[in-house]
Amino acid sequence: MTWPPALPFDQALKRAQAADQQAMGMIYKRFLPVVYRFTLGRVGDVHAAEDITSETFFVIVERIRETRAHDELTFVAWALGIARNQIAMHFRRLKSRPTSQLSDENDFAAGRLPDERDPLDVITARESLAEVVTALDKLTEEQRSVILYRCVLGYSAEDVGQLLGKQAGAIRALQFRALASLARLLQHSEPAPADSMGSLARQTRWARRTGMEE
Amino acid sequence: MHPEDALDVLLTERANNRAGAGRPVTTSRTMGTADETLRPLVAVAARLDPLADAAPSAAFTADLEQRLMARMRERVAQPQQPMRPAPSSPAAGSRRTPVVSGILRGVSHPAWAGIAAALLLTIGLGVFTAQAAPGQPFYTVRQLAQRMAAQAFPSPTVSVKDALAHAQADLSAYNAAIARGDTSAALGDLRSLRADDAEAATVAIAISDPGARQTASQQVTQFREAAAVDLRQSLAALDWRGRAQVTNALRAWGDTSLVVTDARIVSDSTSPGQGQHDSGKGVTALLQVAGAGFADGSQVLVNGQPVGSPLSQSPTLIRVRVQTGDLNDANLVIAVEESDGTVAIAARIDDADGGQPGAVETPGSGDNKGDQGAGSGSSSTPNATSSRTPSPESTDSANSGISH
Q1: Degrees (nearest 5) of the Cα angle B127, B131, B134?
Q2: Mean pLDDT estimate for chain A
Q3: Residues of B numbered 287-326 whose beta carbons fall under 8 angstroms of chain A's beta carbons: which are they?
Q4: For residue A28, pLDDT beyond 90
Q5: Calpha distance A127→A121 (Å, rounded)
Q6: What is the reported pLDDT for A199?
Q7: Does pTM top 0.80 for this prediction?
Q8: Do B46 and A197 touch (CB under 8 A)?
Q9: Sheet of strand B305-306, all strands in order from the earlier edge strand to the far edge
Q10: SS3 of B59, please?
């Protein structure tokens, strides 16, 4: 989570607030994956995730002058707050539509990924991601946030504590309980290897590269 | 070490290894002799790797960046527009009284001056037109003033109330027009009613505070329930096209499920004898109407005229035999009318069955589809092989933006 050293984050933010396109471009490139992964982890549909990410960044551009963020972490908290609102609106829109339209749109659960990777990778990822996102959805909001911030976005327990306004120790405890709950929820659909799910294909390909293939 | 802390150490180590090695890390390598009870939890964390590795497509990334930069350019360009007035000359300033100068100094920034002007205009219009009722000359000005006020002080809750008040006024105007038999005016009021209702619903759903959102949504729902009663009562006073517009509103509010997705003129292969000439009444065809919400007593209308009892009917499909002469109209409109008066117009009409134009026209070419053939019947085929889409007004596709 380090900012490119060429321009400290606070300076980039100030310049972006002064409508400097280059600085805004840097912020966009830095935080696009963060917003996208957070969104994908919540909606489980790549197209919806892209739409919401897009809407989130337009709001960021509109309101960047208003943010009181002073460092990368507070900016992430602000940006993900916007993303969370957009996600809530997305779910409200889905709820207000007939169910016949839902099936087409929420096709991530049905296993669609816009991917040109190894088909084996894609198939494995489809199954696992659908299960994981469904299970994540069943956690409490706090547990889900901790898991997303810690395991998906890669922030430390201390950072997550700052993001959620809790002590790092509380975050570790929440993380433990969240992963335990997630393990229980995934228990019935567990065929993945003990270590890294989705990585059957990845491991196979890695084995090929390193000459370890049987 | 507490298990929570041990788990955190393992996860951190694992994340560092993933970032460093760029390849999968096996739990056993990472965990070493760590507590076996933590292994399942680390394995579960590993199942999140695809999410942690997910990235939007390059095309999406580039496209969004381009659009964001364009948006930024727009925002930069706006303040540069020649909005700023030229500085006042000292002579002009000297003519002002001290009090006026003081006030003007306070609003000397162009933005503040604009806001102040809009505020004064809004208040003035609001006071002047406060008593204007629907139908009176200043009612439109009153609506405009309220909308300006809503924009100047954008409280979503107030905006919902305003939009619903306008919708209620539209409904009153609609009922009055129905009562005096002016259906044209009534349908105009219906359009305004739907626009105001849609505005209320759109603003309500975007309210961030859950309690306020729920209250606003309930207000919208209550209005719709009351309005639906009035609209249903008015059905008897309208012709079939008017009833179709009312039905569109009712469907948008969830008050009816009646909809016709398409009508298809199919070959009459199941009844060869009747697929030709029907006892001196002319050539017949089988018309198949698909949709939803068809109930017992549904009646197919061709250009507003009922075409007889259905041959078969389900909640989603009606088959009826029609005279092909009835279908020979460039502006053909096929609809379904329910016994409660609601009407839905087919969004699409297919004139041929599986690319077999004129399938029911001319007898005698042999097979089942083959009532087809060249000959005199072809002249009565209504726009064979083409599809027709009724005008947006007739199907009222504007439904789509309204949630309920």
Answers
A1: 125
A2: 77
A3: none
A4: yes
A5: 10
A6: 37
A7: no
A8: yes
A9: B305-306, B299-302, B334-337, B343-345
A10: helix
